[in-house]
Amino acid sequence: MPHATPHADPVGAELDSVLRGGPFHVALRAAIAARGLPLQRVQHHLSRHGVKVGVTSLSYWQQGARRPQRPESLRAVRALEEILRLPEESLIRLLAAPHGHPADRHAGGWSPRSLAEASGVRERLLAESGAPRDGGLHTLGHHERIRIGVRRELAEREAHHIVRARRDGVDRYVAVHHGDPGAAPERMTVHALENCRTGRVRRHHDTGVLAAELLFDTRLRSGDTFLFRYAVEDGTAGVSHEYVRGTDSPGGQYALQVCFGSGALPVRCHRFTQHSATAPRGGRQELTVSGRHRSVHLVEPRVRPGYVGIAWDWA
To answer: How many degrees, rounded to 5, is the angle at CA 63 between CA 298 and CA 260?
Structure first.
């Protein structure tokens, strides 16, 4: 007797990816969108499970503005797994561990394990190169340009740094790029664009992390300033929803620009801040996409410890 052909998993590739890697709000938003349920219907289904959650709370959860924490809220999350036909524990698992971001984080959608790996890959490369753990550099200015491709993927990240040496002998910077869920670091390419060249590159497939040495063309003395520019060509993951920059030390100006490709314009964009890894997101401010340049941006005159980013909705 022939074996029956298994039914296709109703969870799409994108949803499957964010359920594995998180973060929670992106996974919840993707799951609701995949089922085509308005929030009012989701609320109705929850009430039939004996759980009361407001539409506003559901909206905040999927935007990342708030995070389910109370027992009643966690009951709702478990009920959502059943209502949205998700694997058991898939959403709860994303809530079970800290949802912070590493200090050198470069793309949205991370699991707690991948966060630890990102930090570990960077520290190992610093140790191997003999560079100080803090890199020996103070950031005076940092401009990142994120390019979103026609498939709505994170296609490329270009970074322009202005730094000052904290000590004598600094001659490199370790750049860490953390791809969106499902990214393949082995297919990413690092481009040294100005005043640097590419040294050793480390890749960690399971977490989508790439760490690369950028070697300067000079050894800096304490107090010297230096400018360099590089890019990471990515495009290896699925649909991108946000980009976050975090730091654990104060610095100079930071500018983030997100550019959207032809045919890949989001319906909404907003900036946000987060004081610490465990704090809720705040500082939400709507951003208007420039019609001519198809981009949005934010500028922080002086960077403080914490996180700042831009998120966008495709529908």
So the answer is: 45
C-alpha span between 110 and 11 (Å, rounded): 19
**φ and ψ at residue 75, rounded to 5 degrees:** -60, -40
Inter-residue contact 166 to 136 (CB < 8 Å)? yes
The answer to whether residues 289 and 260 touch, using CB atoms and an 8 Å cutoff, is yes
Burial (CB count <10 Å: 0-12, 13-18, 19+), residue 39: middle
156 is written with which tokens? 């490329």
Hey, what CATH topology would domain 112-313 get?
Immunoglobulin-like (2.60.40)
pTM of the model: 0.64
Backbone angles phi and psi of 154, in degrees to 5: -75, 100
pLDDT single digits (tens) 3-12: 333 444 444 6
How far is Cα 311 from Cα 151, in angstroms, rounded to an integer?
17
CB 237 within 8 A of CB 152: no
- What are φ and ψ of residue 167, in 5° steps? -150, 170
The DSSP code for 61 is H
